[in-house]
Specification:
single chain; 145 residues; alpha/beta; six-stranded mixed sheet; three-stranded antiparallel sheet; 4 helices; 9 strands; 30% helix; globular
Length: 145
């Protein structure tokens, strides 16, 4: 997993999406910010982000960008980094409260539901493409109470 960040943004990219031969860190960070920008352009999502900035006293956005996979023996939402599988919910739990919002750019092949205690989550309802993000399709929101 490659982590690329600046003052207001932290992108966690599976090694499948980060190749220093073809992409610079600046290029991938710009792409990750573009994904977040397309999601937050929805006025309802933007208001959730602004409210969370005030509640959590941070402007930082965390984004997970990886391949989503299904496991035959599991009803949980997984992502892949090289040959290893990790639970998306565990990534959310680790980042919960650190970011004003958490954005998951990982196919949700089983239609799982995510939850958090502090940070709102924006994540796909199914498989996901960059065009879905641009068009505002297949994204759902979880707002902690």
């Amino acid at each position: 997993m490659k982590v690329i960040s600046d003052e207001y943004f932290e992108a966690h990219l599976s090694n499948d999406f980060y190749n220093p031969i073809y992409n610079t860190e600046d290029h991938r960070l710009l792409e990750a910010k573009s994904i977040a920008g397309h999601i937050l352009k929805d006025s309802n999502y933007w208001m959730v982000y602004q409210s969370s900035v005030l509640a959590l006293n941070t402007k930082k956005i965390y984004l997970l960008w990886a391949h989503g996979v299904g496991k035959n023996d599991s009803s949980e939402y997984w992502y892949q980094d090289e040959d290893n599988l990790f639970k998306v919910q565990e990534w959310v739990n680790e980042k919960d409260g650190l970011g004003a919002v958490l954005i998951i750019f990982t196919c949700n092949v089983i239609g799982a539901t995510l939850f958090s205690r502090k940070s709102p989550i924006f994540y796909p309802t199914s498989e996901l493409s960059y065009n879905d993000i641009i068009e505002g399709k297949n994204i759902q929101m979880f707002i902690p109470r």
